[in-house]
Write a structure and sequence with these properties.
This protein is an alpha/beta fold. The chain contains 13 helices and six strands. 43% of the residues lie in helices and 8% in strands. Helix 2 runs parallel beside helix 4 and helix 12 packs antiparallel against helix 13.
Length: 316
């Protein structure tokens, strides 16, 4: 997506405050990967495997819980690697990514276990990505009358924002609501999947339309509003005062199906399976003994262990 403008307008919705005001949905895999790449391998668990990512994730989780003290918070993880429903639609989806090493897979399991003993609902599914689980949980939370805070720096998540919702890049402490998407990324929240249908996404191996880059995709959506409207009015495109307009029209006509497929791949679903008793991410009582055992197994130091124990008691 395009870069944020230098000056952004004030947000139009109030940041949710108070007990139970919002359901926090955490794009957990993002923060596990960040810790994996940023923290040197040093400490190991009792079996000798590295635990740098889980230690970093534990500190992130403490920071988040201490700052928000949420009554409702869920952790979403990616388990759908090559088994995601999108791979059945398009086998090359994310095929450009190297498989996670065993050292990292083990730490993902530890991070999920940490969430469980802290009483936090953990979302993971073999056929759906974390984005889909967050999208589904957000839809349920809204039906139950809760605002939603999506804790993620992933710009694609902006398509999930509804009125009263927020997205929070926790590391940068940057927040935006639905109205703040356009000034930041050059497109509206509801246009994100259409935008990726046109421009593609190299990180996920989504093809898009060859020759249609991010700037052109944003301009076309600004003029036509949606991918469907654009494809319905392709005869007008060569007449636009846009450099290469005729070539863009030809590309769109030739790669129409690729654009529709790419949009389908980029669309976050909102009807994925959620665990029984999810209850809009209501936190359960923590398992203090289980937390102590896990900290011992992972050789988590006394400072982080005390913070985790304190966080286990931070249930509003």
């Amino acid at each position: 997506m395009s870069s944020p403008e230098a000056t952004l307008p004030m947000a139009t919705a109030a940041w949710p405050r108070g007990k139970g005001q919002a359901v926090h949905l955490v794009d957990s895999s993002l923060y596990v990967f960040r810790a994996w790449h940023s923290i040197p391998v040093g400490a190991s668990d009792e079996d000798g495997w590295p635990v740098n990512a889980v230690h970093g994730f534990a500190r992130f989780l403490c920071d988040l819980l201490e700052r928000t003290r949420p009554a409702r918070l869920a952790l979403a993880f990616d388990e759908a690697l090559d088994s995601c429903f999108r791979n059945a639609i398009y086998p090359a989806y994310k095929a450009n990514r190297d498989p996670a090493p065993e050292e990292l897979k083990r730490q993902f399991a530890h991070c999920k276990a940490l969430g469980e003993v802290l009483g936090l609902p953990v979302l993971a599914h073999a056929e759906y990505e974390a984005d889909d689980l967050i999208g589904t949980a957000a839809a349920q939370a809204r039906r139950d009358g809760h605002a939603v805070v999506i804790v993620s720096a992933d710009k694609d998540m902006a398509q999930l924002l509804d009125e009263g919702d927020w997205q929070w890049d926790f590391a940068r402490d940057e927040r935006w609501d639905r109205a703040g998407v356009k000034p930041r990324f050059g497109i509206h929240a509801h246009q994100v999947a259409d935008y990726l249908g046109l421009a593609g996404d190299a990180s996920d191996n989504i093809p898009g339309v060859p020759g249609i880059g991010p700037k052109t995709a944003a301009i076309l959506l600004g003029l036509y509003g949606s991918l469907d409207a654009l494809l319905d009015r392709l005869d007008e495109v060569p007449l636009l005062k846009l450099r290469g307009a005729a070539q863009h029209a030809a590309r769109l006509r030739e790669h129409r199906e690729a654009a529709l497929l790419s949009r389908r791949l980029a669309t976050i679903v909102r009807d994925a399976p959620l665990p029984d008793g999810f209850a809009s991410a209501h936190r359960r009582e923590a398992d203090g003994e289980g937390l102590d055992r896990l900290c011992e197994r992972l050789r988590i130091g006394p400072m982080t262990r005390r913070r985790l124990q304190d966080c286990a008691r931070l249930v509003p």
